[in-house]
Amino acid sequence: MKWETVIGLEVHTQLATKSKIFSGSSTAFGAAPNTQASAVDIALPGVLPVLNRGAVECAIKFALAIGANLNRVNVFDRKNYFYPDLPKGYQISQLAKPIVEGGALKIQVGDSERTINLTRAHMEEDAGKSLHEDFHGMTGIDLNRAGTPLLEIVSEPEMRSSAEAVAYARALHTLVTWIGICDGNMQEGSFRVDANVSVRPVGQAEFGTRREIKNLNSFRFLQQAIDYEVRWQIETLEDGGRIEQATVLFDPDTGETRMMRSKEDAHDYRYFPDPDLLPVRLDEDWIEAVRATLPELPAAMQARFQRDYGVSAYDAAVLTGSRALADYFEAAAKACGQGKLAANWVMGELSAALNKAELDIAQSPVSAARLGTLIARIQDGTLSGKLARQVFEGLWEGAGEVDAIIEARGLKQMSDSGELEKIVDEVLAANPKSVEEFRSGKEKAFNALVGQVMKASRGKANPAQVNELLKAKLQ
Amino acid sequence: MSLTPDDVKRIARLARIETSDAEAQATQAQLNSIFDLIATMQAVDTRGVSPMAHAQEVYQRLRDDVVTETDRHAAFQAVAPAVENGLYLVPKVIE
Question: Do B69 and A36 touch (CB under 8 A)?
Answer without folding.
Answer: yes
